[in-house]
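User: I'm writing a tutorial on reading structure tokens. Could you give me a worked example: one chain, its sequence, then its tokens, then a sentence or two explaining what the tokens reveal?
Assistant: Sure. Here is the example chain.
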Amino acid sequence: MNKCTGSGCLKACFQRLDAFARYGQEEPLELIAFTHNGGDLEKKLESLQSKGVDCVHLSSCLRSKDPDYENLARRCSEYFAVVGYTHGGETAHSGQETLVFRQASKTEESGESVVDT
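And here are its predicted structure tokens:
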């Protein structure tokens, strides 16, 4: 991940390929932020919320190389819909399954987050 330029993610986004094919050509699509793994996750989540982000795509590199991939996807899903890859197949070369979550919702009775996969 230290050598990744993000070009595969950006190409998939702008050309609506692979994970971005789910958005029709006529549907508005805006890239609001692009960040690296690491740093202050809480600050990043707050910043993304303040910018009106509603869906986060985790990079394909992250899916295949980061042992914390699932935890990051679940944490992001507390605030956003999450698509756990950007380009390539839905299953990584390593066999890692892609996680896709709708945004977690708070149950009215318990206040606990519920994540739909």
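What the tokens reveal: The beta strands are 55-57, 81-83, 100-101, 105-106, 113-114. The longest strand covers residues 55-57.
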